[in-house]
Specification:
By secondary structure, the chain is mainly alpha-helical. The protein contains 2 helices and no strands.
Length: 57
C-alpha cells in the first residue's frame, strides 16, 4: 500500500541512491533491498561472533 510521505535527504544522497538503482527499479524496491542486505549482514556478524565464542570457549 503506497504511502505518500517523503524521506528527507541531501541531494548527494539522492544521487547515490539513483546510481544504485537498477533500471525500472523503484526507490521503494531499492530501499527494501538495502534494508534486507543490512539485516543479513548483521545476522551473519552475530553468527560469526557466536562461532568465535564457542571456539574460544
Amino acid at each position: 500500500m503506497p504511502v505518500d510521505e517523503h524521506i528527507p535527504g541531501t541531494e548527494e544522497t539522492r544521487k547515490v541512491l539513483h546510481e544504485l538503482k537498477e533500471p525500472g527499479q523503484t526507490y521503494d524496491d531499492l530501499l527494501r533491498q538495502l534494508a534486507q542486505q543490512r539485516r543479513r549482514r548483521d545476522l551473519e556478524r552475530r553468527f560469526q561472533e557466536l562461532e568465535t565464542r564457542i571456539e574460544t570457549g
